[in-house]
Amino acid sequence: MRSRSMSGTRDILVVVHGEGRGRDVPTGRVFMDRLRSTDPAFAARFRFHPTGSVRPSLSGVAVVLFWLGDPLEEKYPECYREAVAIADEARAMGIILLNSPESLCNTTKTRQAHIWERHRLPAARARSVRTPDELVATCRELGGACIVRSDLEHAQRDVMTVRTKAEIARAAQTCSYPAAVVQMFDIRGEYRLAGASPGDLFGRFHHKARAFVFGDSAMASHLFFSRHLVVGLSNSLFAREARPRRTLARRFGFRRGLFARMIHEDRAYFDNGLLYRKTLVEAVRALGLDFAAVDYSIRPDGSIVLWEANPYFYLPRGEESVLSDERGAVNRVNQSLDWMAGILREIADARKEQAA
Ligand SMILES: Nc1ncnc2c1ncn2[C@@H]1O[C@H](COP(=O)(O)OP(=O)(O)O)[C@@H](O)[C@H]1O
Ligand SMILES: [Mg+2]
Question: I need a labelling partner for 356 at 20 to 30 A (CA). Which of 20, 99, 138, 220 fits?
């Protein structure tokens, strides 16, 4: 006999986008594959509900976790409405929600910025603008240098950086409205002003750090450097150095120093544990979220500036990570997945005990 009937509420219901109803981010499959190998009994307690399918029964459910694209209401209004109905029913039954549908609406660039500003968290100011005139005035208000981008899109899509009057005027004519105007920080410049040595990657390149936050805990993920202010995997030094020509050049002794330093910084970031846990945890909590991957940068004085919280984050298998061997990615990704599973298990079992 299955133990469910004996121990009552024990399942974890994960709400995901139904076919054709949203972008699929396969982190969940990577997570489940790992969990099936490390703790099959816990893995067996997961159920999945694709939006658009028959309304799930919540009987026997301890936790409902919403694994849906964000900002949810703006991008996927039908999934949002369905998720809210499930969340309301779950709340009435005393079931724990993780990343509630309402919290998944707080990650537009401007809403996130307002929330963090209100909580006095270190982040760029941002405004939503509807006309070219408003855009020009807002860039002036935010100090001139700004990032102009879609309020809703992630993954560095439709991003313009403007510093001069001419660039602001061009952006005002070409961007689509409404647009988000974000105050620009030059963290690399701060390192240079602080007297970074020529070999210091933080003074030579732009960087962004990523950490996972789950409740009160945080865990480092990766540290990317890039020649571009808007740092992403595709423009990172990792992606560049992983190309076959660069790999070959290193075999002949070129750029080995740079490569070694960049791997060292990324590994040290992961190994040394997080110095910024409190701010990262507060940032995610302020948005009403329970877990997210947070992008941020580290300033020369040791403080941080937050870029964004991604509740619907992509985490590939370690084997598929960029420069997997050099970065020890398999072990790192597995550690991250096990850490997430451990927290989820604690939450689900606390609920189970309460119900018993
Ligand atoms: N206000 C800002 N000033 C300077 N750089 C920024 C700012 N906001 C974001 N960035 C850079 O752009 C990258 C992408 O921005 P992010 O907010 O993470 O959006 P997304 O990844 O959804 O496109 C960040 O990793 C960071 O390198
Ligand atoms: Mg990002």
Answer: 99
Residues lying with their CB under 5 A of ligand 2, a single-atom ion:
295
SS3 label, residue 41: helix
> Which residues have CB under 8 Å from 287's CB, separation 6+?
103, 106, 107, 112, 115, 309
Give the pLDDT confidence of 157-196 residue by residue, as tens digits.
779 999 999 999 999 999 999 999 999 999 999 999 999 9
Nearest listed ligand to the Cα of residue 151: 1
pLDDT over threshold 80, residue 272: yes
Measured from the Cβ of residue 176, the count of other Cβ atoms closer than 10 Å reads 7
Confidence of residue 351 (pLDDT cuts 50, 70, 90): low
Topology of the domain covering 201-310: D-amino Acid Aminotransferase; Chain A, domain 1 (3.30.470)
Q: Ligand 2 centre and the CA of 155: distance in Å? A: 6
Q: Where are the domains of the chain?
A: 4-105+341-355, 125-183, 201-310
Ligand nearest to the CA of 224: 1
Architecture of domain 125-183: 2-Layer Sandwich (3.30)
Which residues have CB under 6 Å of ligand 1? 124, 147, 154-156, 182-185, 208, 229-231, 295, 307-308
Which residue's structure tokens are 């490390």? 38
Report the 10 Å Cβ neighbour count for 239.
16
Evaluate whether the domain defined by 4-105+341-355 bears CATH number 1.20.5: no
> Cα–Cα distance between 185 and 267 in angstroms, integer?
25
State the Cα–Cα distance between residues 301 and 298, nearest whole angstrom. Answer: 8
